[in-house]
Design goal:
The chain is mainly alpha-helical. It contains nine helices and no strands. It is elongated and about 55 Å long.
């Protein structure tokens, strides 16, 4: 499906005319094909055109993580958080990236925020390997043992 999306978008004309949505979709298709570096080029352009689109920033964070740039993944999610501070997915993903970066306090703060906004995120924690650096931490255990 991502390959088909790339081909369709490529046939739709000059990419300078796509706007933020077309750039985002092209970046998402590349991300779906695990071509993360290429995806970042299109997603960054989409972010310039539509800096308030949290989906672009979340996708950028995802790609940065997979290219070994946790620092930039965190920055991308911080941009998304500024645009929509009450979106639990942003807080959850930010907690994941901060955990990987060894920033325990901030990771727990954002995980707590995600859970307070939407308790359903609790179901994802046990299988989330991004939290492995925190699993044995008493503060993490206390936060994640709360029944919601």
């Amino acid at each position: 499906m991502p390959q088909h999306a790339l081909e369709t978008l490529a046939r739709s004309g000059d990419e300078t005319q796509w706007g933020s949505r077309g750039l985002y979709l092209f970046g998402e298709a590349l991300r779906g094909l695990e071509r993360h570096q290429e995806a970042l080029l299109y997603l960054a352009r989409a972010a310039q055109v539509a800096p308030g689109n949290i989906h672009v920033w979340i996708a950028m964070g995802w790609c940065y993580k997979r290219t070994g740039r946790i620092d930039l993944a965190i920055e991308a999610l911080e941009q998304a958080r500024r645009a929509e501070p009450a979106e639990p997915l942003i807080h959850y993903n930010l907690a994941c990236y901060l955990s990987l970066a060894g920033k325990k306090r901030r990771a727990l703060t954002h995980l707590s925020e995600a859970l307070s906004i939407d308790p359903h995120f609790r179901a994802l924690i046990d299988d989330e390997t991004d939290f492995d650096p925190l699993r044995s931490d008493p503060d993490f255990q206390a936060l994640t043992s709360i029944i919601v």
